[in-house]
């Protein structure tokens, strides 16, 4: 399983992917210890059909807190986040939840791109640019998270 401490963004996306996999193929839950454990958590949390595990929600909240902190203290991070804001506003306006945070929208976007790649769908240049910018922001944020956890 991906390590939350090493790369929290990959950890969240990995959990989302396993949730979707188990929803599509519930009979596969016994194929590995990881799948069995996540399936059991999904049943216990009542998210068999939709929603995300508490593990993913907590990790996302931790990233939100660090994101807010960096927006207020790190000029480079703030500039990168501000550069993405207009594009994220457009994505939010087209989503089911216009009130979600920018960081949450970035994760939804990156997960959607991952699914499109699996389907071998072609992406526009604009989408690829947004993917690159969002990926760089998540990489920086994940690195800051890892550094913060390693210093404690």
Using brief descriptors, characterize the structure shown.
single chain; 152 residues; mainly alpha
Number of spatially distinct domains: 1
Question: What is the CA-CA span between the terminal residues?
Answer: 23 Å
The helix/strand order is HHHHHH
**Spans of 5+ residues with little confidence (pLDDT < 50)?**
none
The counted number of beta strands is 0
Per DSSP, the total helix count is 6
Proportion of residues in helical segments: over 70%
Give the biggest sheet: none
Strand content: under 5%
Global geometry:
globular
- Backbone CA Rg: 16 Å
Mean pLDDT: 94
Helix-strand makeup class: mainly alpha
Question: Would you mind describing this structure in some detail?
Answer:
This protein is mainly alpha-helical and 152 residues long. It has 6 helices and no strands. It has one domain. It is 74% helix and 0% strand. Helix 1 (8-24) packs antiparallel against helix 3 (54-73), helix 4 (75-93) packs across helix 5 (102-118) and helix 5 (102-118) crosses helix 6. The chain is globular, with a radius of gyration of 16 Å. The model has no long low-confidence stretch (mean pLDDT 94).
Set down the secondary structure blueprint.
Layout: H1 8-24, H2 33-45, H3 54-73, H4 75-93, H5 102-118, H6 125-151
Give a quick rundown of the structure:
The chain is mainly alpha-helical.
């Amino acid at each position: 399983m991906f390590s939350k401490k090493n790369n929290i963004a990959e950890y969240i996306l990995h959990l989302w992917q396993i949730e979707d996999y188990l929803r599509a193929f519930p009979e596969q839950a016994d194929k590995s210890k990881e799948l069995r454990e996540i399936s059991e958590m999904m049943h216990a949390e009542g998210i068999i059909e939709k929603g995300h595990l508490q593990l993913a929600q907590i990790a996302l909240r931790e990233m939100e807190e660090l994101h807010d902190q960096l927006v207020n203290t790190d000029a480079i991070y703030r500039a990168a986040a501000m550069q993405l804001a207009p594009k994220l506003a457009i994505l939010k306006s087209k989503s089911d939840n216009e009130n979600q945070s920018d960081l949450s929208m970035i994760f939804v976007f990156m997960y959607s791109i991952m699914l499109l790649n699996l389907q071998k769908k072609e992406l526009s240049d604009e989408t690829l640019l947004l993917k690159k910018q969002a990926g760089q922001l998540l990489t920086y944020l994940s690195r800051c998270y890892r550094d913060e956890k390693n210093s404690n």
